[in-house]
């Protein structure tokens, strides 16, 4: 078991070390005082005083040589034990200084070496107690020192193992926290990539696709109908201008350009419908919507109209924004060629519809698609209003099937 270095000690270990140091010097001082009181100055007294001073000085060097079982630490401990043994042989009163030495040996040496040192120290304590009894027999003289040594060793080993388990647990917690932080960073990166991919698909990619179609149309009609060709070019120029605004928004991470111009979601949808020659209507009493909801609904409308323009072959389409008591619903209907949801589960076509569904789900809402081949398509996005719980999710309003003519008059 690897024990922490002096600078790595936890507060409890450092506190225990200070207690043991204080106890050692108290026992050493008490033992010297007892000897001097019981034995007035004798021939061995100078040796006892000198060895006591030497033992105190050596013990003070303990923190300097560290706590690991390095060669200098073992040499220091061996010297301390040798000086203590000399003291015990000359004056048995110093025997109980062995208790702090138990702790020092157990903390410094490997398990087997530490147990050997504890056994040696205990033997000398028994020897000292017998000497102090002056030949009188007392079972406690034989039993008490090993019992004290066993208790001290058991407490230390238990505490050391508990500290090791605690350090392992803390290391595991730190490692787990770092792994969770790394996972969160990766998930954040993936989420941001997904967000940017949806933003680019719903704005720049669709705008570039529209420009391509308009420029191709202008090229086909340039010789026969220059006015129509120029009109296509001007429309492509307008789309390019809006794409430039969107690109700048990406750099500054602002709201959608239509929303940033002011007027809120209704004005943004009305402007989008006008550019796409699409009918637009608002039902219900308008309520303030969070910016995230406005942005999501506008992006869904842009994506749906782009799909209609590129894939549906529709003669007309319509947007309806409906405010209900507990949700806001956006319906996009077209009279195009439609498709079979059974053949295309969930109505998934390309990247656009999955991106719209993700936008709705991120706000606790739903996206439903109803379509029949030859009868058009209705897409409905329902987002719960902030003042109402988002679970369970409220059902969306069933959309009406689109007629052959534009189903709504533009407001």
UniProtKB/TrEMBL annotation:
Name under which the protein is recorded: Oxygen sensor histidine kinase NreB
Chain ranges of the Histidine kinase domain: 297-387
EC number: 2.7.13.3
Stretches of the chain forming a coiled coil according to its record: none
SMART domains found in the cross-reference section: HATPase_c
Reactions the enzyme catalyzes: ATP + protein L-histidine = ADP + protein N-phospho-L-histidine
Subcellular locations according to the entry: Cytoplasm
Organism listed in the record: Streptomyces flavochromogenes
Pfam families with a match to the protein in the record: HATPase_c, HisKA_3
InterPro entries referenced in this protein's UniProt entry, alphabetically: HATPase_C_sf, HATPase_dom, His_kinase_dom, Sensor_HK_TwoCompSys, Sig_transdc_His_kin-like_C, Sig_transdc_His_kin_sub3_dim/P, Sig_transdc_His_kinase_ChrS
Signal peptide from the UniProt entry: none
Region named Disordered: 381-411
Chain's role: Member of the two-component regulatory system NreB/NreC involved in the control of dissimilatory nitrate/nitrite reduction in response to oxygen. NreB functions as a direct oxygen sensor histidine kinase which is autophosphorylated, in the absence of oxygen, probably at the conserved histidine residue, and transfers its phosphate group probably to a conserved aspartate residue of NreC. NreB/NreC activates the expression of the nitrate (narGHJI) and nitrite (nir) reductase operons, as well as the putative nitrate transporter gene narT.
GO MF annotations in UniProt: kinase activity
Listed transmembrane segments: 15-37, 44-62, 74-102, 114-134, 140-158
């Amino acid at each position: 078991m690897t024990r922490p270095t002096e600078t790595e000690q936890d507060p409890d270990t450092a506190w225990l070390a200070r207690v043991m140091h204080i106890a050692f010097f108290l026992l050493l001082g008490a033992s010297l005082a007892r000897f001097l009181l019981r034995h007035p100055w004798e021939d061995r007294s100078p040796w006892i005083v000198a060895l006591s001073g030497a033992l105190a000085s050596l013990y003070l060097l303990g923190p300097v040589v560290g706590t690991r079982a390095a060669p200098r630490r073992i040499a220091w401990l061996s010297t301390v034990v040798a000086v203590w043994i000399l003291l015990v042989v000359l004056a048995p009163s110093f025997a109980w200084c062995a208790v702090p030495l138990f702790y020092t040996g157990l903390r410094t040496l490997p398990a087997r070496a530490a147990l050997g040192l504890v056994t040696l120290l205990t033997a000398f304590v028994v020897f000292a107690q017998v000497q102090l009894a002056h030949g009188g027999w007392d079972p406690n003289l034989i039993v008490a020192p090993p019992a004290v040594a066993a208790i001290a060793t058991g407490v230390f080993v238990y505490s050391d193992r508990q500290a090791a388990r605690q350090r392992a647990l803390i290391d595991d917690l730190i490692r787990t926290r770092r792994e969770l932080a790394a996972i969160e960073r990766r998930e954040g990166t993936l989420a941001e990539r997904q967000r940017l991919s949806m933003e680019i698909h719903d704005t720049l990619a669709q705008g570039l696709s529209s420009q391509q179609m308009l420029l191709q149309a202008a090229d086909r009609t340039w010789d026969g109908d220059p006015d129509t060709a120029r009109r296509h070019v001007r429309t492509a120029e307008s789309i390019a201008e809006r794409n430039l605004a969107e690109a700048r928004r990406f750099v500054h991470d602002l709201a959608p350009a239509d929303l940033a111009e002011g007027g809120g979601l209704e004005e943004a949808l009305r402007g989008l419908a006008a550019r796409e020659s699409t009918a637009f209507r608002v039902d219900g009493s308008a309520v303030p919507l969070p910016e995230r909801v406005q942005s999501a609904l506008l992006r869904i409308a842009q994506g749906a109209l782009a799909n209609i323009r590129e894939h549906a072959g529709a003669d007309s389409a319509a947007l309806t924004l409906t405010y209900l008591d507990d949700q806001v619903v956006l319906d996009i209907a077209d009279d195009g060629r439609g498709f079979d949801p059974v053949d295309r589960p969930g109505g998934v076509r390309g990247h656009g519809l999955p991106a719209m569904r993700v936008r709705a789900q991120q706000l606790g809402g739903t996206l439903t698609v109803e379509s029949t081949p030859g009868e058009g398509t209705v897409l409905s996005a329902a987002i719960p209003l902030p003042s109402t719980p988002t679970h369970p999710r409220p059902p969306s309003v069933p959309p009406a099937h689109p007629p052959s003519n534009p189903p709504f008059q533009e407001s």
